[in-house]
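User: Design a sequence. Structure:
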């Protein structure tokens, strides 16, 4: 009888141990493992993050990378006859070595474009034809260099304004070339690498007025048979927004045009956006509170619940930076303020939000 009871106790202990082990294994599931049947999970990287703890986290958790800055016009093409390939080449080599997909970012953007791009040798503004030729040459050279290595490109970035009634941001590209600079950029990119998926990329896509303007822009491109394959929703959100309904509307509205949708620059700030300050009355202490942590976990859970719901339509999710140790949101828009928008803390450890994202 004693042996029987002892055996029962051992069996029970084994079951409990097995249960705890399975729970622990579940908790330790990586992002790329959790979402292998849904979509690639990517991260924005810099050349300096390709070694050490950053690199370890990148290779263990993610299966796609986006160069945060290294392929933008200014960094990669600082002078008319000079390209700075080193950073971009290093990121591509790192990704290939580790079997990761690569998204290119970005070929045409009103920010981080070098001043020389819009002026001649005497400092005067160039003509439409000259600027188109420069844009084509830039896209030919950059896309051509990485042809077959990158599966997707953010071709045109943030061409729609936040506030005015116009569909088009009054950028130098728009002022000098006209609205067709967008379709030209897509045509040039497609010619340079016909196999790459081409995206229009923007932020505040959950704002009804801006979403409608972006929708009209890409709808017009589709009507003209411009080679556009998807829309990137940047996803610079916060613990206060967006709602599930706003996010669903954005995904389904762009998908109605037969376009893929990707979340291209995901982070969830623990601080409210400027327009939310009065409502939430935050204190800009830069300290992560338990309440912020709880709200962030709930927001990330909601976001990924929606992402999974749109499996097939949503073809990629990319986080903008690796961990809270270093994020572009530090000091922005409040100088000196720290933010904590990612799934991994300053010591590269998973936060509460991580568990809610991978355990479903």
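Assistant: Done.
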């Amino acid at each position: 009888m004693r042996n029987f009871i002892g055996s029962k106790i051992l069996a029970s202990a084994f079951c409990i141990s097995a249960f705890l082990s399975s729970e622990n294994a579940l908790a330790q599931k990586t992002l790329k493992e959790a979402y292998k049947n849904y979509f690639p999970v990517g991260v924005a990287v810099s050349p300096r993050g390709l070694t050490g703890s950053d690199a370890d986290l990148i290779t263990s958790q993610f299966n796609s990378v986006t160069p945060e800055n290294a392929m933008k016009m200014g960094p990669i093409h600082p002078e008319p006859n000079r390209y700075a390939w080193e950073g971009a080449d290093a990121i591509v080599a790192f990704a290939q070595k580790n079997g990761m997909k690569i998204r290119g970012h970005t070929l045409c953007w009103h920010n981080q474009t070098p001043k020389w791009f819009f002026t001649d040798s005497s400092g005067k503004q160039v003509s439409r034809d000259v600027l188109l030729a420069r844009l084509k040459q830039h896209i030919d050279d950059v896309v051509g260099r990485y042809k077959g290595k990158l599966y997707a490109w953010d071709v045109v970035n943030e061409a729609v304004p936040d506030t005015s009634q116009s569909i088009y941001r009054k950028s130098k590209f728009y002022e000098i070339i006209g609205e067709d600079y967008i379709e030209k950029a897509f045509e040039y990119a497609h010619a340079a690498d016909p196999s790459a998926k081409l995206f229009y990329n923007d932020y505040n896509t959950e704002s009804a007025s801006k979403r409608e303007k972006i929708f009209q822009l890409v709808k017009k491109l589709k009507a003209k048979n411009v080679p556009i394959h998807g829309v990137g929703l940047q996803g610079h959100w916060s613990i206060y927004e967006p709602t599930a309904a706003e996010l669903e509307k954005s995904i389904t509205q762009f998908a109605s045009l037969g376009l893929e949708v990707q979340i291209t620059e995901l982070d969830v700030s623990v601080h409210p956006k400027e327009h939310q300050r009065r409502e939430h009355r935050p204190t800009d202490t830069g300290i992560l509170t338990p309440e912020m942590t709880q709200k962030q976990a709930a927001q990330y859970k909601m976001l990924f619940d929606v992402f999974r719901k749109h499996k097939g339509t949503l073809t990629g999710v990319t986080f903008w930076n690796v961990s809270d140790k270093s994020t572009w949101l530090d000091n922005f828009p409040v100088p000196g303020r720290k933010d904590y928008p990612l799934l991994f803390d300053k010591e590269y450890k998973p936060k509460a939000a991580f568990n809610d994202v991978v355990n479903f």
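The chain has one domain: 38-358. Residues 2-27 form the longest helix (26 residues).
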